[in-house]
Q: What sequence folds into this?
């Protein structure tokens, strides 16, 4: 078998992004070039590595096995590059993925703690949804993922390899509304009052959940604005252009004009914050970052 580093990078990126077209965009290739690399990789491996589906591309069991080795090979290549440029001994790098609101309420404290205790550790971050971060973790594009889960808090997925997952904290889901608007002066709202509310939500798809709308709301929610950016969501709420859901931890970073409301008439919605990494003994820098996350929560 003859695998090039380019073809292994294609394998890793397809595993992470879930499609040839998305992988091509992120790698700076054409889609046809990625498809050719994928086909060449399968010919060299002598087996099917990619499962082409109507909703994208997933790796077959053989593809997942090769991905495990690809991660090791590409990490070794990156380590060699660092040694040749003289940067290996100076810093340790950890790639951290977070769900969006964690960037506002957890990340600053984590980076502050690390800067004081372990200045030789460099953390780079990326934002994503829980499904996207899980793909990135298995693809080897990040070292740690900070995720969310909803009750009954089953394992994140059934994919291989099984990840090492730790609970960080539980946080209650609340509704953000304009302070001077329809629910002015209140600390709670009944779920029936939310049925016809205008919602501000993140874009969703068959692979990504609808975030920003109260779960289990009767009927089809009236989504009037879609954005992944938390500042945009909350500024729209402050302007009276809709409501959205936020974890209770975000109470410390709300802009003026936004209040948080409990939802009565429905079971509490608790979201669990989790840390995940690939199985096996973690590198010392990864351990330092996970400890900082636990302390910041």
A:
């Amino acid at each position: 078998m003859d695998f090039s580093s380019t073809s292994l990078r294609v394998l890793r990126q397809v595993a992470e992004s879930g499609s040839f077209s998305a992988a091509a965009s992120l790698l700076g290739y054409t889609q046809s070039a990625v498809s050719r690399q994928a086909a060449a990789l399968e010919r060299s491996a002598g087996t099917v590595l990619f499962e082409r589906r109507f909703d994208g591309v997933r790796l077959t069991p053989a593809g997942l096995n090769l991905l495990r080795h690809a991660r090791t090979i590409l990490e070794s290549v990156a380590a060699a590059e660092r040694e040749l440029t003289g940067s290996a001994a100076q810093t340790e790098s950890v790639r951290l993925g977070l769900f969006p609101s964690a960037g506002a309420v957890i990340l600053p404290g984590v980076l502050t703690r690390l800067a004081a205790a372990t200045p030789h550790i460099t953390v780079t971050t990326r934002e994503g949804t829980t499904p996207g971060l899980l793909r990135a973790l298995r693809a080897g594009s990040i070292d740690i993922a900070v995720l969310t889960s909803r009750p009954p808090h089953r394992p994140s997925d059934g994919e291989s390899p099984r990840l090492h997952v730790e609970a960080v904290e539980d946080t209650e889901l609340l509704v953000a509304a304009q302070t001077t608007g329809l629910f002015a002066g209140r600390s709670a709202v009944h779920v029936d009052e939310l049925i016809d509310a205008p919602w501000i939500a993140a874009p969703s798809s068959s692979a990504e959940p609808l975030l920003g709308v109260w779960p289990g709301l009767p009927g089809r929610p009236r989504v009037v604005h879609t954005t992944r950016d938390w500042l945009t969501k909350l500024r729209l709420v402050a302007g009276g252009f809709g409501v959205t859901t936020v974890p209770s931890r975000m109470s410390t970073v709300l802009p003026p004009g936004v209040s948080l409301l409990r939802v009565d008439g429905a079971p509490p919605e608790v979201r669990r914050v989790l840390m995940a990494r690939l199985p096996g003994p973690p590198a010392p820098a990864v351990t330092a970052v996970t400890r900082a996350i636990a302390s910041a929560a």
About this structure: The first helix runs from residue 5 to 17. The longest strand covers residues 164-178. Residues 107 and 264 are 31 Å apart (CA to CA). The radius of gyration is 21 Å.
